[in-house]
Fold this sequence. Notes:
- There is one protein chain.
- This protein is mostly helical.
- Helix content is 72%, strand content 8%.
- The protein contains 4 helices and 2 strands.
- It has a two-stranded antiparallel sheet with strand order 1-2.
- Strand 1 (72-79) and strand 2 form a beta hairpin.
- The chain is rod-shaped.
Amino acid sequence: MMNGGRKPLDVQIPVAESKITADSGTMSGPLVAQAARAAALAQRRADVVHAALRFLCLTTSVVSLSAMAVAEQSSSIVIYGFSLPVYAKWSFSDSFEYLVGMCAAVAAHSLLQLLLSASRMAKRSPVIPSRSHAWLMFAGDQAFAYAMMSAGSASAGVTNLNRTGIRHAPLPDFCKPLNVFCSRAAVSIAFAFFTCFLLAGSALLDVIWLSKY
């Protein structure tokens, strides 16, 4: 439309908009790359913590197994004035056998997971590749944690009975003449409970991973 014989002013607004858009696009590139590097670094740290927990769990389970496997001693005890020979060994108790079996199973589980984690970390790939793998690890860690707690509690009950004896009965404190046996059993039980807490920590890491991805 003509206004007094003059042409209207032509303002190139789309050109300005496209320039602003282009500038915004060039500025978002470094920010995206920085966020990606931060996420990769956080994932790498989580993988290192996960592998460290596996190594500690393997170590404590092996120590618990070794301490119980060498729990053996012979001595003598006096009951009603009679000196009787006594011989203690971990295989004489079902609870101690259960503890040894669970320690062996947890050690094998931890060693397998540690080798898989080390292999994936060497290839610069995530330790937990998928949600199904995370759920599988979570279920395994939970099951072994409860089993280790059960084995440790049962063994602790037997050790406490040996240490205190039975009230209103002539059975005395067996840990006095069998102090080496009881001390090794106590060390094994302590490391078994420590292994249980490490497995619970590993399961917690699995839950955190599942909540993020």
